[in-house]
Specification:
about 425 residues; eight-stranded mixed sheet; disordered N terminus
């Protein structure tokens, strides 16, 4: 053995590793990864660091709770493949562990003639993705939703709802991993020949052989702390929701026809597992990565977003769309008007403010919104750099893919 290699082996042998795989991020993707590792390679020691006092406090716990069918996503993309597969697996997982869920189906409704070609395009896309889709005329919409109006619609039967926070808690329990809550990663020391050491805000140091970055809203920052340039920046978009005071107006899930230029699905109506109906979200730039209202501003994070050229490209390219979203954020009347396109009976008084969410959207330098899941590898590291919706739906197959990569890196280590 070469002297240098022998020296490295001697140093490695003296290191007291806390785990084999060190996961940063206790959302549904990080916990699914830990769960998948324990099943693929029993005995592999996994530690998950989560800065909050419990799991799923951000994207996972603040979404609309929809198990997406995969009808929207480009055939062959990771989103399409993992959403279709993940939807079926999520229903099975919830049934196995007694987690609240239901397969409700949903309507996607065209309210303007200009939307009809896009609606027909979704029919074709759904069929290419292997999803059963039923086309409806205006009069047939009432079979599913008596209060909804539109020119045409499609019914997607495999869409459902569930308690994703409950799923995350079950994944944490079933993974067998050591979950450390209140453990915010503030420094990463990676030495390709030795492993990775992460210092937390409390001063603890956790050592692992391989790092998995599932930090969601902060995934690009963790990548840079590790020494890898992600090539993207997370630009946070806040989605604001209302709760419907008259939930009997909506039986299930009702969506508009989405604009293909954006990864956002538009303001929709979602009857959740608790029986309440959520209305939203819109999509406005957040002034902090965890900026759940206009009053939350973190200047360092805001400066970082504004310094990224992609942010300015988005603003120039899509200012009209952004202005409309901003108007609906600042004006309840404008938001109500958007809802009334689908549900004419709704009034301003029917909309009660509820908790907002923030989407971690990866943006390229040229302003392109990354429209697929993005997973990249570095030395001793795997980074999940874009996993917004439908990541909760697709979390089980995403977790297996990240686990596969992490175990391959571990084998080479």
């Amino acid at each position: 053995m070469h002297y240098r290699n022998r020296e490295v082996e001697q140093v490695r042998a003296k290191i007291a590793y806390d785990c084999d795989v060190l996961v940063i991020g206790g959302g549904i993707v990080g916990l699914s990864t830990a769960y998948a590792i324990s099943r693929a390679a029993p005995g592999t020691r996994v530690t998950v660091l989560e800065k909050e006092p419990g799991p799923a406090r951000h994207q996972t716990g603040r979404n609309s709770g929809v198990i997406h069918s995969g009808v929207y996503y480009r055939p062959g993309s990771l989103k399409a493949r993992y959403a279709v597969r993940g939807a079926a697996e999520m229903v099975k997982f919830c049934a196995e562990y007694g987690i609240a869920h239901a397969v409700t189906g949903k309507l996607i409704v065209a309210t303007d003639r200009a939307e009809l070609p896009r609606l027909h395009g979704l029919v074709q896309r759904g069929r290419e993705n292997g999803i059963p889709v039923r086309e409806l005329g205006a009069s047939q919409i009432a079979e599913y939703e008596p209060e909804v109006r539109g020119l045409a619609a499609i019914h997607v039967g495999t869409t459902g709802i569930c308690d994703f926070s409950g799923v995350a808690r079950q994944l944490a329990e079933a993974s067998g991993a050591e979950i450390r809550y209140g453990a915010q990663a503030v420094r990463v020391d990676r030495r390709p020949g030795l492993g990775v050491a992460v210092r937390t805000a409390t001063g603890d140091v956790v050592r692992g052989r391989v790092l998995v970055n599932c930090a969601g809203l902060y995934c690009d920052e963790i990548a840079r702390l590790t020494g890898d340039e992600p090539g993207v920046r997370i630009v946070p978009f806040r989605g604001e929701y209302y709760e419907l005071a008259r939930p009997h107006l909506v039986r299930g899930l009702v969506y508009p026809v989405p604009d293909p230029a954006f990864p956002f699905l538009g303001v929709h109506l979602t009857r959740g597992v608790d029986g309440g109906v959520h209305v939203g979200p819109n999509a406005v730039p957040a002034l902090a990565r965890e900026g759940y209202d206009w009053g939350t501003v973190r200047l360092g994070e805001l400066r970082s977003a504004l310094a990224w050229p992609g942010s300015w490209h988005i603003a120039r390219r899509h200012w009209r769309y952004g202005a409309g979203e901003l108007r609906r954020s600042l004006s309840k009347g404008a938001f109500t008007q958007a809802v009334r396109r689908l549900l004419p009976a709704v009034t301003e008084a029917d909309l009660l403010p509820t908790a907002a969410g923030v989407r971690a959207q990866a943006v390229l330098r040229d302003g392109t919104l990354v429209d697929d899941f993005l997973i990249r590898e570095g030395a001793r590291a795997v980074h999940v750099l874009n996993a917004p919706s439908p990541a909760a739906t697709a979390s089980l197959p995403i977790g297996r893919e990240v686990a596969r990569r992490a175990l391959a890196v571990l084998e080479r280590a």
